[in-house]
Known about the structure:
The chain is of the alpha+beta class. Among the domains are: 38-108, no CATH class; 183-285, Immunoglobulin-like (Sandwich). Helix content is 28%, strand content 20%. The protein has five helices and nine strands. It has helices at 4-26, 41-58, 61-69, 76-89, 94-108, and strands at residues 183-190, 198-204, 215-220, 223-228, 239-243, 250-254, 260-263, 266-269, 275-285. Strands 1, 2, 5, 8 and 9 form a five-stranded mixed beta sheet that branches. Strands 4-3-6-7 form a four-stranded antiparallel beta sheet. Strand 3 and strand 4 (223-228) form a beta hairpin. It is elongated and about 80 Å long. The termini are far apart.
Amino acid sequence: MKRAPWFLLTGLVIGLGLGLLCAWVLCPVNYTQTAPASLRADFKDTYRSLIARAYAYDGNLPRAKARLALLGDPNPADTLAAQAQQALAAGRPMAEVRALGALAAALGEAPTPVQTSVSVSQASPTATPRPQATATPTPVVAQSGTTATPAPTPVGFPTLPPTPTPLPTRTPQPAPTAGAPFLLRSQEPYCNPDDGPLLRIFMRDADDQPVPGMVIYIHWLGGDEEIFTGLKPDIDPGYADFLMTPDVVYQVRPAYGTTVTDLQARECQADDGSRYWGGWTLIFAQP
């Protein structure tokens, strides 16, 4: 009677061992053709990161869209932007954050034709026709009863060719340098009681097009932070923001750009007379 529990325990161990042997060795479960949409949330994040890195390497947007469609996200641009913000907050590598932000900006950007050069209209110069040299006719003396002495043939002076008209030349216009630094185009107060003391930054290139993936350095006494454009493509592909703290002085400098100093949260007044903290809107652009 006392040995019954030991027999039960032995049978349980043997049954468990046989079950594991059958499940792992004899009849393992093979997952084939698993859809990416059925992956776990963290595996989906890894999948998006790989897609973003591939897009950063080859720039093939249709291929990236096709790969993202396998995940079944309702709005891939917003999902990528949110993942980029989470990766930035978690201290992930900057290359991964930039790749996610660039792909989110590319997906959220409207497919409008981008003007990359300024066409200079120039009237085609009309070629001045060169006058053809006319042969001098030799006078013919009419014959009469008497033989007339033929008059000497006058020798014409050679006709000089007309002086060619110089073709008009176009003065070359200075084109903006591809690596020109970003300069502060405008700085305007921003008042929105829902946003608070928000510092909004827009980056534009020489063609006035948004610049996603641009790093912006923010410095204040006792702290530094880096933000990136393109993480909120629903607002603008070249947009980034930072929430300021009242009574703190900030400096803002985009990569390859000028520094803007003495930025502080400012007071704004609502329609009912109440006051609240507001921020600034900065627009940097290449010349």
